[in-house]
DNA sequence: AAGTCCAATGCACTATTGTTGCACGTATAT
DNA sequence: ATATACGTGCAACAATAGTGCATTGGACTT
């Protein structure tokens, strides 16, 4: 188990107090969160900082974006060994229509997705909606 | 080939001039569109009408929602024989990272998606991103 | 044909989310 | 230590989403 600091540095992200806090918040949550969720968690933090921090995390492969049907983009930490940027890591997400939570189903990967000739798949946004195990 | 009027009525939607226009616009487009796209197409139409019309279409199963990575929700007509509301019609969408267009790949269905025990799948939002045939 | 009713439309407004520019502080490298 | 680059916060703006209310207009009744 390496420290968060090491992990961020390895991804090319400079470590700051803010970033550690945000990372820890994401790590604690089991479900994907919106920027507003983070904002509400620490109310003294500026929205812009959050916005840019998460963008940084995303571009460095620390978090990935998910669009369930709800308004707004959600984010979740990538698994330690996650290769979100690669086509080979097309894992599924599940959005509960009842509790509105979205979780990563990292162990339920889509084996292969065929796209028509001429199309080149790079990554994906795969969300199944329904009722989650807590609500069923 | 039945008329649009019949089609809408069959879905339980009252036919109006506005709704026919909006339906025809969607039918002409090959790709999924945002509300703003529709708004720009006919500039005399009120945004609210668009918003509510599309919501009506969606709830009656005439259009389906797609969330590619871009900000904002997109909509596309369901196929004539589309059962968007059913788990059995989990068709794929393709979002081009170059031209930003999103199209339905209605003939590329996902065979079956397994979700863990306790989860109940109802529908899905499946978007593969990459480069489309026009841009590659 | 007139009147009633209800859904559809349009207007005004508010809320939320996404985004940028700039100023300032703090860390980093030379 | 000094210059430089990066992070943070403030302010403002833009785009998207959503609501309440008054008006219109079609469908239906009598």
UniProtKB/TrEMBL annotation, chains A, B:
Cofactor binding, per record: Binds 1 zinc ion per subunit.
> What Gene3D superfamilies does the annotation carry?
Winged helix-like DNA-binding domain superfamily/Winged helix DNA-binding domain (1.10.10.10)
Q: Name one GO biological process term.
A: regulation of secondary metabolite biosynthetic process
The entry's keywords: Metal-binding, Zinc
List the molecular function annotations (GO) for this entry. DNA-binding transcription factor activity; transcription cis-regulatory region binding; zinc ion binding
* Entry keyword Metal-binding: yes
State the superkingdom. Answer: Bacteria
Binding of Zn(2+) occurs at: 96, 99, 132, 135
Q: Which cofactor does it need?
A: Zn(2+)
What is the protein name given in its UniProt record?
Fur family transcriptional regulator, ferric uptake regulator
Query: What species was this sequence derived from?
Result: Cellulophaga fucicola
Q: Does the keyword ATP-binding apply?
A: no
